[in-house]
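Narrative summary of target 7.
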Amino acid sequence: MKERLILLLCGLFLQTGTKPMNRIFTRKHLFLTLASLPFMGVVAAFGIAPNTPTQDLQRELVVESIELPQVQATDSGAFDFWREERITRGDTLQSLLARLGVEGEEARQALAAARENKSLGRLTPGRSVLARVTSGGQLMLFRYLISDGTLVTLTRSGGKFQAAEQPAVLEARQIMRSGEIVGSLFGATDAADVPDRIASEMAEALSGDIDFHKDLRRGDHFSVVYEAFYLDGQLVKTGRLLAAEFVNQDKPYQAIHFKDAQGREGYFNQDGNSLKRAFLKSPMPFSRISSGFTGARFHPVLQRWRAHKGVDYAAPTGAPIRAVADAKVEFIGRQGGYGNLVVLKHQGSYSTAYGHMSRFGKGIKRGTQVSQGQVIGYVGSTGLASGPHLHYEFRVNNVQKNPLALKLPTAYPLDRQSKAQFAAQAQPLVANLELLRGTNLASLD
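Modeled conformation, tokenized:
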């Protein structure tokens, strides 16, 4: 077959033109063609001619037994692994050890050593424990974070267990998150997985520029950069708010945390001006204004028209009420329609009143000095109140004024040296806020 193919190809090439160039071309291609015949034979072995019927081809399944070497899988119980268990209600150390695979004499020895530490006898539901256990059920190490900074360990040493407490070495990370206001601030921060504490700190820091009761608009955008602390990759606690930006009605407001060389700290805008106002705009960071300052309002209890010389904040019973500025307690007690009332005397001619409280803050009594933001009482419905709310008054020379319309005094800015330090610390935080601006980023760490 191969000989016939060679003769056929030779005949085809010899029938080409008689010019010298054609003869050179012919010999060259004849050589290449002959040299490729073995490869053509290989290819042809896998080919099927056109129109060849394949449905009648016989198929045969061949099963061949292969002898494999005998390998016996054994577990010496020596290798170990880490396991994490979440503490549930009713859990004891013994039940946790059982879920970790530690039982019998091993568990009895561990429990005996654990009696030396009271914290291991009071497990907090919701927290987690981490243990290193061998495949044979031998406990090598047991760790339990009893607080944000204290770690309890149960360690094997020389065949015995030892219980000890030590400071937890936490890893600090910066978390960046942002979101958009659709309904409420808390709803937006929850959707972006921002902790309530960070949301409150943002509202607190920017409360001098934004009234979070009445200034919010759908489409407002916020960005936050805050600290979080981890132990072995697990979130242990949330730190402070480092920087925040809130774009309210297309106008951006920033708050950047700074601590000076003397240990004084607070929030400042990008220019280094303090955001701490002499007076907060609101005694409650999150609540709804149910009744504003007006010369004529139909009283829901008295059922008649009368002036309303304050602002009512609707909130559930027990919600904390804070002092809007540093002050001395001028009056505390029950007074007519105010019910349980606290009156604070501030600098100059300013004073504030807080009515309808359910109870007073701890340690609050006449003559007590209170600081801005300190809790002085809790929302209630004492006095002439149709439901739980805070009646808040802002007084100038004992005359009630509308606190939402007053231009309140501001605090002083940083000095030259502190301002230079602030600029250096603020630069990377401002860069992160600019990165988040205009995005709806759930989280970045």
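The chain has eight helices and 22 strands.
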